[in-house]
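Final report, closing paragraph on structural work. Over the funding period we assembled a curated collection of sequence-structure pairs, and we close with a single example.
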Amino acid sequence: MRTKSSMFVIALLLLVSAGARAQQNTPPPEPDQSASPTTRPGSGQADFGFRGTFYSDNSDQARYQRYRDLRNGVFAENVRWGKQDDRALWDVRATHIGYRDQQYAADYNRFGKLKASFELNQIPLFFSDSTRTAYTTTSPGVVGLNGYPAQIQNATATTAIYEANATPFELRLKRTITDFRFTYSATDHLDLSASFKNTNKSGEQPWAGTFGFSDAVELPVPIDTRTTDIGVAAEWTGDRGQARVGYDGSFFSNDVSTFIWDNPLRSTDHPSSGPAQGRMTVWPNSDLNSASLSGLFRLPRGSVVTGYLSLGSLSQNDALIPFTINSQLASPPLDRTNADASAQITATAFSFASRPRSDVALNARFRSYDFDNNTPVFHVTNTVSYDTKIAAFAPGGTPVFSFTRNLFDLDTSWTPKPFAALRAGYSYEGVSQTFRTFDTTHDNRVRLSADATGMQWLTVRAQYEYSHRIGTGLDEQSLDDLGEQTSLRQFDLSNRDQHRFSAIAIAMPSPSCSVNGSFFIGRDNRPDSGFGLLHNDSNGMSAGIDYVPSTAVSVGAAYQYERYTALQKSRQADPGPQFDDPTRDWTTTGRDRAHTFTASADLLKLCRRPTCASRTTSCTRRRRTSMGSRPTPRCRRSNSSRTSSTRATG
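Its predicted structure, as stored:
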């Protein structure tokens, strides 16, 4: 990417309401809470300007404007209006009005009763301004090549015709987010809330289509999707606890769910050479509905119990497309016409925190996630490869994957002396799944650590972790069905023993200097894996120094070294006698080393920020009527009766 030279011409115009200008010389009085409500005039501001940008040759304008719109012309930035009295607050904002990255927002707060907010935010994504393609859109989701494939098939032209007829275009995508939220306080203890959020994506993005390794193309896929999220909740809060009940829904829709493109090498279907067009499905319509209940209750001795329960459902029932678009092949019949996909989701979370003694703390947590897939098995006896041939499908159907994950954590700490602590922890993770080589896995982890911070010049912490994972219900037949070695163990399921020790120390030989050092050792062994990852070890250390000679200057330097080694084993063999031949085994050892050196210097405090105070100027603070603004200094020279008012623009 070449550099660009840019010139910005900006004119700033500040609009302040007449009521606000009238108050510049007289600070408003502090509100009297016992008196009737006082209404203050609103105030606002707006920045107007003109932008002109010049690019050098071969500049990447798309990268420069990747997530923003910096076209030349007049712009309006930071338009804002606010109004506030003793009862309510208004705040309206807008920026980059009329451009692809424009934003609008509004907030309303009826103190103690109602809060509402609205936001419209557009986010552009500029992929490229130099993209060229010979494809043209003939209908939504269908792109063609204007008859060029017939010339290629008839040998009257070569593929160079596409380069000659490719036209440039700007590849863009835009996301528009509309967000509305409000909270209503029905009573002192009960709040009702609702939210609505809609995200629309439109435009195009890079995509790939293929009829085989020698016939692959890159093309723009059209995007026209919407995601609508809604939520309602009621929350009660009392002296001893709180409770919340809510509903959340997320609904995704896609107006272009099927994408069809021309084959650049063929204009007619052929049973072995391929079809004239390719077809694929893209993102399907789907729905998510979830209801939740949560609560918190405070117990004696500083103990707190929390609980969360969520019940949800996922569904997707889009129409299924045939196995092939090639009219010269008899497409195998579909087991059903629609996806009929659904799942039930149950999630829970519970925690207990207590401090039975001043030097002892106890925390316990339990979480679970159950994904119950109710999608019927899709029976498949034959499928189509690359739209050129019908092939048998050995599994006979698509598996329905479900899983349940349970996690339990227990942590305790003991502080026998001030600034010294001993900690111990235990974690358990149990996973049950379908259609994996292990039906269940059990991972037990123990943690021990010690901290010492009581010494004025030294802080030390050391930690040791041990983890043992083991699987049950091994199904070697599932590996054999896939044509894999039965002694292969998958990375996330294989039996594993893991050790890790780490320590860190920070020493301060003087108040202005600190030295730190750390190291870690990790060992990962998988004793029951015949093929796959066998070992995965890690080592590292670091050292650094920080020096602060004064409050305005600080410097530091650090060095870090890391080493990772891994051993993997496999067998290169085709089905037959080779499959069980150990002489075809091979191993690979990965050795990664990283050396990192960093140096830093902080000199910002050497330069003081300018202030309006001087020997001849006295400053007072003035309260502004616009919301969210900090008090602004008003400066008055001692040798003049004229008062000047300044405005902070930062």
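Residues 1-36, 612-650 have pLDDT under 50 and may be disordered. The two ends are 33 Å apart (CA to CA). We thank the funder for supporting this effort.
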